Amino acid sequence: MTAKPLLTALLPLVSDLSRELPEGERYRRLLEAMRALLPCDAAALLRLDGEWLVPLAVDGLSTDTLGRRFKVSEHPRFAALLSGPGPTRFAADSDLPDPYDGLVDGLDDHLEVHDCMGCPLFIDERPWGLLTLDALDPERFEPIELDALQAFASLAAATVNAAERIERLNNRVEDEHQRAEVYRQASGQQNRELIGQSKAHKRLVEEISLVGGSDLTVLITGETGVGKELVAQAIHAASPRADKPIISLNCAALPDTLVESELFGHVRGAFTGAMNDRRGKFELANGGTLFLDEVGELSLTVQAKLLRVLQSGQLQRLGSDQEHQVDVRLIAATNRDLAEEVRSGRYRADFYHRLSVYPLLVPALRDRGRDVLLLSGYFLEQNRSRMGLNSLRLNSDAQAALLAYDWPGNVRELEHLIGRSALKALGNCKERPKILSLSAADLDLPNASVETAAEQPVATVTQAPIGDLREATERYQRQMIGACLERHNNNWASAARELGLDRANLGRMAKRLGMK
């Protein structure tokens, strides 16, 4: 590798250092320059996040790779790259499993023999992440190219450093210690990460950043399964209260008789079974954030008592006359239309307006385009690790099926689908495979059956006698209620909300249909 090609590849990056570019575009150009210098079939930039490697940009790898989170201890090639001070080239016939096995675009076979090398990136003498290159030709890379990769890695580290500095300036965060704490929490709790690149998702992230720095009460709305609790956690993590606790309460999981005790606490003897004084969620969240999920389920009585606390910051434990002062930021979530609940008299208007100081709508999965593939990659990697597989991937027809599906259960439905499909597909294998590929048939999405049913209902109904119509209607109701209950893990209150029914009415209907 002569100096001229190296200089030609590096000059655009040097120029980019002085330009303000979106983070994703800056990293894309970084990989583009590296592939110009060292042609390969796949390249990736990964950030080290605690014990995980998070892909920031990929070229030549499947889209779902961006949604994966690779645990270093489970991928010996990554561990080897991170442990070295400089570039490492693996032997073409290395027996170490390749984390990209099954993920290279256009290659459905195993990466049995190929050329692979990578280099750690250091910022302030600390490991920041990795650059990796894979070539299908086992003799593509030469030993001399390790020096070129090292030179490139040094400038790549400067590019990453510049990108992070620019991001900090653009965000105008005043408290750097708070940002470090938020980052630490995010790196330690992978389940709290919001994954996506769609416009709808980016708008949501921007709003989270905007409202996070304030102390406004936020009402998070959206369909069941979109991730409203994750959004609440992200708002808290972006707030000045991030170093304080976020306390959660699912209002639908408790009867009215216990909600007050959970929220405000109680004193000994306040009711049967109250053996000791107990602090409620408000006191536990003092100085931090209280997240009320399913807030649409609160009774009018509890709404009135909550309103007083929100207005004055004062509460009384059940059975006590003593006032307790609390400083709590409230975040609430619901999949109900609370404005309609107010109009129908089932919800207090003053409490609704107190909750919806800053309304935040979480987009449905079907409105997020190719984010479904990134989220699939995240869940695929989780299941790959859980099942002890070398690789768990999606065939092209499976990807197309995921993109075409309407996702009534949103991200939660996708998570359950991936786990269920992977387990079934593995059970159908006579021998344990190195790569387990999920096809559209493995996913068993109901597109075809739904479309077929939708094509013929009118003819069936108009030709059927009255008795058959009633029987068919009841059969359809049983199927619909059963499917809804399955999506909500037999939570009747949640199922009733999705079906647009009162919980008691749903119970009576289920009893009439022989389901209870």
Automatic annotation (TrEMBL):
Q: InterPro entries annotated for this entry? A: AAA+_ATPase, AAA_lid_NorR, GAF, GAF-like_dom_sf, Homeodomain-like_sf, HTH_Fis, P-loop_NTPase, Sigma_54_int
Tell me yes or no: is Protease among this UniProt entry's keywords.
no
Q: Which PROSITE patterns match?
A: SIGMA54_INTERACT_1, SIGMA54_INTERACT_2, SIGMA54_INTERACT_3, SIGMA54_INTERACT_4
Q: Give the residue range of the signal peptide.
A: none
Can you provide one Gene Ontology molecular function annotated for this UniProt record?
Answer: sequence-specific DNA binding
Any coiled-coil regions, as ranges: 156-186
Report TM segments.
Answer: none
Domain Sigma-54 factor interaction: residue ranges: 194-423
Per the record, the GO terms for biological process are:
regulation of DNA-templated transcription
Keywords, ordered alphabetically: ATP-binding, Coiled coil, DNA-binding, Nucleotide-binding, Transcription, Transcription regulation
- NCBIfam families, per database record: PRK05022.1
Q: What is this protein called in UniProt?
A: Nitric oxide reductase transcription regulator
